[in-house]
Hints:
The structure holds two protein chains of two kinds. Chain A is α+β, with helices and mostly antiparallel strands.
Amino acid sequence: MCGIVGLFLKDTALEPQLGDMLTDMLITMTDRGPDSAGIAIYGDETTGNAKLTVQSNTPETSFDKLDNDLRKRIKGKVSMSVKDTHAVLSLQADQVAIARDVLAEIRPDVRIMSHGSTLEIYKEVGLPKDVADRFDIRQMSGTHGIGHTRMATESAVTTMGAHPFNTGIDQCLVHNGSLSNHNSLRRKLRRLGVHIATENDTEVGAAYLTWKMQTGSTLGEALTSSLDDLDGFFTFVVGTKDGFGVVRDPIACKPAVMAETDQYVAFGSEYRALVNLPGIEGAKVWEPEPATVYFWSHNAAPTAQEKAA
Amino acid sequence: MQTFDLEAQGLRALNSTLHAQADTTNQTQWKIVNPKGSHAIAVGLDAPIEVNIKGSTGYYCAGMNKQATVHVHGSVGPGTAENMMSGMVVVEGDASQYAGATGHGGTLIIKGNASSRCGISMKGIDIIVHGNIGHMSAFMAQSGNLVVCGDAGEALGDSLYEAKLFVRGSVKSLGADCIEKEMRPEHVTLLEELLERGGCNAKASEFKRYGSARQLYNFNIDNAY
């Protein structure tokens, strides 16, 4: 079991409350996944800038003067804001690749959680309430976000096994279910040069989507081909810079409920997660169909197959 | 009318109060407010009482019901009226997966759509759906009746035993050993009674009947891999 929540705001007046609303939804899903939790928030964008959200188990030493050390090496602007075990590094978008190399050299224990212009990912082991508190998620504003509560079945309970997973710039994936062909797919992807760090099944799913997109697929096409190439049970929610997408495997035994009003589109593993959203009594509530890719985007009305995600 | 605020009073208090109602109770009308998608509301009832739930419910609402009428004024989560023995469960909205699974008796009426696996392994329950049903519905259904006024999803009635399936709209595909069957006068009579019980605005003549081809009942070496 696992719990997924997602909230995509249409009404910009709600943006300051995004973190607060998502946190409530996440905590409601605690009994679907009490061992770890994570949240992906799409917040402010600064033109030309990129954000790397990084994590360390020893933040006091790893994050000490990290911005200075990085700035000296890449010879560009770097700013850092530390939140508990995570830190968000803001830097020029064209210096991300070199910054990654330098980070691996000067702080080998620091792990990159996400890369994007608006995306930040925070995830840790622990009760969803405690994880949300550590990163002060309630205070965060944004346009949309995805949360996950984990009950591990396929691999160890670790920070790197928690969701969401970053699949590409400003893209992330959360998963409820279990993939049964992740070992063979991991071997195949590694032979193709794809880096996969852990024995976690969802990381393989995320790496698969990343690889498909790097070899020419759109996110919509990558999700559609996942229906053929991934074995097992899954409800996936993917975050993109403009919105989010949902796909369920053809058997669709992992639950999913959607709600839509003039103000938002919301996703929950259960209706329970949605009950305190404003205007839920009058919302359109439904279950996404199996083996169907859905997208909601700030750029367009809902489409079954978004081509330019 | 007894009113119970689920959010304030809690699930265990609700279900133990409802379980305490004997055959002879005078408190036959119950209203539950603030269900908020909670699990296991009004499960295991065994008294001739009517429970009105004002809102949507989560997993396993009205499971194992006997005698009682449970009326949900909202939508229901997975496993609603699972293993019902008798009585009636009415859902004004939609039902999530495996509604009425393994039900032995009673009537489940869903006024919206039902999701996948509706009536899986049903054993005598009557399920009447005003809208559509999802894939793998009535899988291994043994007895009872499933009436669908809308359309049915993939693999309807896979590995079916003797349940009778009536569908007015399209069937995306039939499961293994499920076939369309002739509507004889006794089936029309049965369906008319079910449509009336379900409050459906539909004519029996608009439906097709599906049932078991009975080819999977005994071991057949040609079916082995």
